[in-house]
Amino acid sequence: MLENKNSEKTLVLIDGNAVMHRAFHGLNKNFVPTFDGKPVGMVYGFASTLINVIDFFHPNLLVITFDTKEKTFRHKMDAEYKAQRSAAPDDFYAQIPPLNELVESFALPTLRFPGFESDDLIGTLAKKGATEDFSVKIVSGDLDFTQLVSDKIQLVKLNGKISDSTFFDPEAVRERYELDPKQMIDFKAISGDSSDNYAGVPGVGPKTTTKILQQFGSIQNMWEQLDKLNPPKLRNKILEFRDQIAHCQKLAEICTDVPLQFSWDQEFAFASQTTLGFFEKMRFHALSGRFEKLIKNYDQKKNLEHILDSEKSAPDPQLQLF
Prior knowledge:
By secondary structure, this protein is an alpha/beta fold. It folds into two domains: 10-174 and 256-320, Rossmann fold; 180-252, DNA polymerase, domain 1 (Orthogonal Bundle), CATH 1.10.150. Helices cover 44% and strands 10% of the residues. It is built from 15 helices and eight strands. The chain has helices at 16-24, 41-57, 73-77, 90-94, 96-106, 118-131, 170-177, 184-191, 206-216, 219-224, 232-240, 242-252, 272-282, 285-297, 309-313; strands spanning 10-15, 34-35, 38-39, 61-65, 110-111, 135-140, 153-157, 166-168. α13 runs antiparallel to α14. The model is unreliable at 1-6 and 302-322 (pLDDT under 50).
């Protein structure tokens, strides 16, 4: 195994579903790789992101998580949870088998757990990883992960290449939301989340919710000092939807205690033969070149604040698709 040159142990958690959708709905429509006459842009984009993540972070451990087809505990709590989302196009589902083959070729730990979302698996691993003295990086496009951010856990909100993405530490969360990470669950409980199809308190938007949490700190403190919530019209509305707020808190909170079977003794290592074999089969020649250069240069210490040499020398059009 090649040596990791970072000064601290790094655990990278990739939100597989988020990366899949970003790759599938990429902006660069002029680059659509095909295999056997069928589009495989999602597979190519996912592979490109994997190479970029490995090159940027030099992880000690890298894990990918995915949703399952089964309904989750949130669907059982609320039949309308994510009910507004339409099914993905057929081209998306057709690319799942080769995408699974891609992930297998990298020989990375890959987790799915019926009844829970990918977010919950990441939440569980992130919290545990922090106690195992890892610096945790969550790679996703989903800002729901801001609730997990701490001194040991960062959210890397994908925006193309990792070097162009936004890194959320506690200060960055406060700068964006004017709230602490631990307040983000309560924020969504009151203001709602249209993407997950729950409303919170009707008519109470993000600005008012932020002011409430800045005043009281938490929903629990708000209930204990409800007479101080003004104006009275707002107080009455909050009280009217008290049960709804409690319900939305449960929907918004990422589970951090999924009973996963996971060994923390694993370490990242290249599976060069199977990965390059997959790239050759799919005729992903540009990715093969990037991957081979990544392996060759991996033992060289890198400055994570700069664009990687492999990206400078071999521009990849698919990196612009996200």
